[in-house]
């Protein structure tokens, strides 16, 4: 009996793929639980976590990222967009708001006693 809910708008191929994914997930879960709860592994002194080659590859990418990094135009634009644009945007907003306040000070609209930055 299938654990996949029957969908009316799904094609037979999509249902077959979903069924295969459910079965594969169940097999991997059973294998993980078998390895994790093996009492003889702890008796031999080789305890610890279950070895997963995908996790090892992911961690090694983090260590060796800069060895294999290739600068591209997309990466340059990403760096500019995430670093340079926010800095200049924030500076522009600060300058504009500070300019409005300074202009009101110079026109005499705010008395010296009511100013926020008297000693700067």
UniProtKB/TrEMBL annotation:
Transmembrane domains' residue ranges: 75-94
InterPro entries according to UniProt: NADH_UbQ_OxRdtase_NDUFB4_su
Chief place where the protein resides: mitochondrion
UniProtKB keywords: Electron transport, Membrane, Mitochondrion, Mitochondrion inner membrane, Respiratory chain, Transmembrane, Transmembrane helix, Transport
Superkingdom as given in the UniProt entry: Eukaryota
Keyword Transmembrane helix in record: yes
GO CC terms, sorted: mitochondrial inner membrane
Protein's cellular compartments: Mitochondrion inner membrane
Membrane topology field: Single-pass membrane protein
Signal peptide start-end: none
Annotated family: Belongs to the complex I NDUFB4 subunit family.
Matches recorded under PANTHER family: NADH DEHYDROGENASE [UBIQUINONE] 1 BETA SUBCOMPLEX SUBUNIT 4 (PTHR15469:SF0), NADH-UBIQUINONE OXIDOREDUCTASE B15 SUBUNIT (PTHR15469)
Name of the protein: NADH dehydrogenase [ubiquinone] 1 beta subcomplex subunit 4
Organism whose genome encodes this protein: Ceutorhynchus assimilis (cabbage seed weevil)
């Amino acid at each position: 009996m299938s654990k996949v809910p029957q969908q009316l708008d799904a094609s037979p191929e999509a249902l077959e793929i979903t069924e295969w994914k459910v079965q594969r997930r169940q097999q991997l879960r059973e294998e993980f639980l078998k390895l994790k709860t093996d009492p003889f592994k702890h008796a031999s002194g080789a305890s610890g976590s279950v070895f997963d080659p995908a996790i090892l590859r992911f961690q090694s990418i983090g260590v060796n990222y800069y060895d294999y990094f290739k600068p591209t135009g997309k990466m340059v634009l990403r760096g500019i967009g995430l670093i340079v644009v926010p800095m200049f945007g924030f500076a522009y907003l600060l300058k504009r708001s500070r300019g409005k306040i300074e202009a009101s000070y110079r026109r005499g609209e705010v008395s010296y006693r009511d100013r926020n930055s008297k000693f700067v």
